[in-house]
């Protein structure tokens, strides 16, 4: 048997004895589970788009050593295959936290009306409801056994506007270029329409297969967010189906409280977003990147190298041109994967030359193992044909027969596809740590942390150093205000290949996973020593995050909780550590606390 349920309770809240007045969602086999006739009625309402969810892993349970099972596990490294399977999620699970498990039924929604029918049915039948778009939740919030799934994959229409004004905002908002995207679209599709075909820029995520609606509700960062800001801050309007089955157009002028809350309040807690409209911007001439690996010969020289890199970042890169990552590794290497916009290759090379010369000047301490500086015309960054011809190693294509051309993802994301997580932690690092009298503390913390596990600083996921207008726009979202003063999000994480408990030969290595989780905890502990009042990015965070309300949303949580009570007073929408989830058992089936 597969471990069922996306939220095991081994290390989470125990279900208390609940008074009979408290809700308990029904499961298959319960007398109150909807009859076959009721499901038929729903199927009729959604035009035949109600499906029973069969897991592709079923053959593996019967014959784990079979060729069919091997093929399933091979395909679990293709995010497009996973995305097209309603039973699967992009992360297979998290050791000691959750295991991906299919819903009983799914409405493969093609329209807002389908979503309304599913929401009404779930509410009236007292079902555990789940919403899934791109399926990239690390916390397993887009799956649950014994549930009804609203699966938005088919809702992927994309429309460009030259002069969009949100409904009800006429005369209050200037018309502006924008794009309207269906809830099931992924960023590869949005970038193809907006940038490759439309010649403009939209702020989305780095990973091409992440869902547009899911990322916007997370807050959302892409490689160039240090210039263009939070993805959610670009939201001009959304259509939302609320728990009562009403369809609301929300924007700065209509339902501004719900509009604010879906900008970073986390997906799956407030309603079903059926479409989003995002502002688009002018493209710069070039995007580019600097990729390098520097090895230090000893611990002492690694400390020196960290100090030099941090001061170089502060002096040269702490501005809207630069984003993405530098990783400080246990093996005394620094892995640089930085991207730029609004510069060209030559300007980038000149800027980095002092660091390169400094490294070359101390061969006894350091060696530059790899160094590449690239530029690409901005319009070609997500152009599949161009990438296939000019940078084939940078991408991986969907290898299924008949797959759409354009189904690609970055080779750098391949390791994460289908993975089982062992641990994942993040913390926003305040820009005050870059001040000259603080840098030594930061350097020491990075060194101490890197003794346990590799630490990556994602500079594009903190808005300190971004243009003032982008910081101001981010303030108008529900995202933790810690992001405004952070120069980077530090992420420390580890995982293994796709694996499922109960399938011999394909089970997670639990003991190795626990060992890694322990090292990752120690690594994060070292960093947290220099961060007070730490915040963590809701979508890239720890399943076991203590004080998650504060970590994910800071001072915004009480306001978010009020919006939740107003639009979903009965708690139809539940996700692990989502707004209002403290009233529910860990699996979302039992109400353990009255509102
Ligand atoms: C490999 C990988 C790379 C990532 N890269 C980035 C990155 O570059 N930048 C970044 O900011 N984040 C990144 N993330 C995190 C990602 O943005 C979030 O997990 C996001 O919520 C995923 O959205 P989704 O639709 O793909 O996932 P899903 O798992 O389908 O959805 C995520 C949550 O949103 C809910 N949801 C989905 N669609 C809707 C809807 N239409 N209405 C209401 N609720 C909905 C789901 O119920 C779930 O709770 C990454 C995650 C992974 C696994």
Write the layout of secondary structure elements.
Layout lengths: L35 H10 L4 E3 L5 H5 L4 H9 L3 H5 L9 E2 L3 E2 L5 E4 L3 H14 L3 E4 L15 E4 L6 E7 L11 E7 L4 H11 L2 E2 L10 H7 L6 H4 L6 E7 L5 E5 L4 H7 L9 E8 L1 E2 L3 E11 L2 H19 L4 E7 L4 E9 L3 H16 L5 E12 L6 H7 L4 E3 L10 E3 L9 E11 L8 H12 L4 E4 L9 H8 L10 E11 L13 H19 L19 H6 L3 H11 L28
Parallel strand pairs: 2-20, 4-6, 5-6
Antiparallel strand pairs: 1-4, 2-3, 7-8, 8-12, 9-13, 10-11, 10-12, 14-16, 14-17, 15-16, 15-21, 18-19, 20-22, 21-22
The site of flavin-adenine dinucleotide has 35 residues, from β5, α7 and β12.
Task: Please tag this protein with its features.
595 residues, alpha+beta, five-stranded antiparallel beta sheet, 22% strand, globular, disordered N terminus, binds flavin-adenine dinucleotide
3D structure, described in words:
With 595 residues, this protein is of the alpha+beta class. 29% of the residues lie in helices and 22% in strands. It has 17 helices and 22 strands. Strands 3-2-20-22-21-15-16-14-17 form a nine-stranded mixed sheet. It has a five-stranded antiparallel sheet with strand order 7-8-12-10-11. α10 crosses α13 (439-450) and α13 runs antiparallel to α15 (510-528). The two termini are 36 Å apart.
């Amino acid at each position: 048997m597969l471990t069922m349920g996306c939220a095991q309770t081994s290390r989470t809240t125990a279900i208390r004895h609940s008074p009979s007045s408290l809700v308990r969602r029904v499961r298959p086999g319960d007398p109150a589970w909807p009859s076959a006739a009721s499901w038929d009625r729903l199927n009729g309402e959604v035009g035949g788009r109600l499906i029973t969810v069969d897991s592709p892993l079923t053959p593996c349970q019967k014959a784990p050593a079979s060729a069919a099972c091997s093929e399933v596990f091979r395909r679990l490294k293709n995010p497009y295959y996973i995305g097209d399977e309603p039973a699967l999620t992009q992360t297979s699970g998290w050791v000691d936290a959750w295991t991906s498990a299919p819903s009983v039924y799914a409405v493969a929604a093609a329209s807002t009306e389908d979503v309304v029918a599913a929401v009404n049915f779930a509410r009236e039948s007292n079902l555990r409801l789940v919403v899934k778009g791109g399926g990239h939740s690390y916390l397993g919030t887009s799956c649950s056994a014994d549930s009804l799934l609203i699966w938005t994959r088919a809702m992927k229409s994309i429309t460009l506007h030259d002069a969009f004004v949100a409904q009800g905002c006429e005369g209050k908002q200037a018309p502006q270029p924008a794009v309207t995207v269906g809830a099931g679209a992924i960023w590869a599709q949005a970038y193809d329409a907006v940038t490759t075909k439309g010649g403009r820029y939209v702020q989305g995520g780095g990973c091409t297969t992440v869902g547009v609606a899911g990322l916007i509700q997370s807050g959302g960062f892409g490689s160039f967010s240090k210039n263009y800001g939070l993805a959610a801050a670009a939201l001009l309007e959304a259509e939302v189906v609320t728990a009562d089955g009403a369809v609301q157009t929300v924007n700065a002028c209509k339902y501004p409280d719900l509009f604010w809350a879906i900008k970073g309040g986390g997906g799956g807690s407030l309603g079903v977003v059926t479409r989003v409209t995002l502002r688009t911007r002018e493209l710069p001439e070039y995007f580019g990147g600097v990729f390098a690996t520097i090895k230090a010969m000893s611990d002492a020289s690694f400390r020196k190298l960290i100090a030099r890199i941090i001061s170089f970042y502060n002096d040269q890169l702490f501005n809207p041109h630069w984003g993405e990552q530098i990783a400080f590794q246990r093996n005394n290497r620094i892995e640089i994967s930085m991207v730029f916009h609004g510069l060209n290759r030559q300007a980038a090379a000149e800027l980095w030359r002092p660091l390169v010369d400094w490294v070359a000047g101390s061969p006894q301490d350091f060696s530059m193992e790899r160094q590449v500086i690239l530029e690409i015309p901005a319009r070609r960054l997500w152009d599949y044909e161009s990438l296939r011809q000019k940078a084939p190693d940078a991408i991986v294509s969907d290898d299924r027969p008949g797959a759409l051309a354009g189904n690609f993802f970055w080779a750098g994301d391949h390791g994460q596809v289908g993975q089982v997580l062992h641990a994942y932690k993040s913390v926003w690092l305040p820009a005050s740590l870059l001040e000259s009298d603080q840098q030594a503390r930061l350097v020491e913390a990075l060194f101490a942390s890197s003794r346990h596990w590799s630490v990556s600083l994602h500079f594009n996921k903190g808005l300190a150093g971004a243009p003032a207008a982008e910081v101001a726009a981010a303030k108008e979202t529900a995202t933790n205000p810690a992001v405004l003063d952070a120069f980077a999000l530090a992420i420390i994480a580890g995982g293994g290949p796709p694996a499922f408990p109960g399938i011999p030969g394909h089970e997670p290595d639990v003991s190795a996973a626990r060992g890694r989780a322990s090292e990752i905890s120690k690594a994060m502990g070292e960093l947290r020593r220099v961060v007070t009042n730490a915040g963590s990015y809701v979508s890239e965070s720890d399943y076991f995050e203590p004080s998650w309300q504060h970590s994910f949303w800071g001072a915004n949580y009480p306001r978010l909780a009020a919006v939740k009570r107003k639009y979903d007073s009965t708690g139809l929408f539940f996700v692990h550590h989502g707004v209002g989830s403290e009233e529910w058992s860990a699996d979302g089936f039992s109400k353990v606390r009255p509102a």
